[in-house]
Design goal:
The strands form 2 sheets. The protein has an 8-stranded parallel sheet with strand order 1-9-8-6-5-4-3-2. It has a 3-stranded antiparallel sheet with strand order 7-11-10, covered by helices on one side. The longest helix is centred in the C-terminal third of the chain and has 24 residues. By secondary structure, it is α/β, with parallel strands linked by helices. Strand 5, helix 6 and strand 6 form a beta-alpha-beta unit. It contains 14 helices and 11 strands. Helix content is about 45%, strand content about 15%.
Amino acid sequence: MFRTNLCSILGIEYPILQGGMAWVSDAYLAAAVSQAGGLGLIAAGHLQDPQELRSQIRKARELTSKPFGVNVMLMNPAAPQLMDVVIEEGVSVVTTGAGNPGKYLSRLREAGIKVIPVVPSVALAKRIEREGAHALIVEGTEAGGHIGELTTMALVPQVVDAVSIPVVAAGGVADGRGFLAALALGAQGVQMGTRFAASVECRVHENWKEVYLKAGDRDTVVTGRSTGHPVRIIKNRLAREFIKLESQGASLEKLDVLGVGALRRAALEGDIDMGSVMAGQVVGLIREIKPVRDIIHDVLTQAGDELERLLVLKKG
């Protein structure tokens, strides 16, 4: 059930990708998602030493024989060296964010690596399709971390209508209802970040997971709009101070001082007060920390149940 062309392209059982979350998505989480039938992604957005990525890739291979990928944030100064490692290690899939991966596409394709960029607009989606991407992750502003301005509900169908390659919907998907809605919008799969961050196999600090369990529908906020790089995080002291500085017209340098290392502090050290706890707006749906396999099973089961309910309504 729910097998799409995306599954065939990526060699996976279910059309569910795990988001590449810096300091969160390591080899252990990626391998768990891939082993459960989805596509796990190792996050390289925070890595400066390419050998750290090589080590993560090799660890994931020890944990699963199934396809997994690497997410590379193109704003990272080390992105060229990280791409070299991805090619040398023969990773199955690369997803990219924060830019256009055009200059890497030919090398990645020649190496047999599937390339799936994250896009926040129709214009970029069409351009990247022309440059040779295999699929697109279309991410709405509901997502956690770095975001665009358009919502998933509005953006996904517009991109689907504009391109011929598979579209993966991201932002606002955490259960079977969101999964089924994404397919109804024309997507061939979904990417979930926040939900997988609240899994047993995710090795973020327990404080981070506790925040997720307690969060409600209005407990995220967007910081950094004045910098041109908005980020959605859980409301806390860091968020309040960042937004206050932005409202006062603080310089980029001053904002950078406040934000440097904040994600690491939250994810690894458990500082949920002055750390950056990235989370999507669906965080209010998370009420239990579960194994990855159970999360995927629950998504597919609920989607099937909802589809049956809709078919009954149609017959009526």
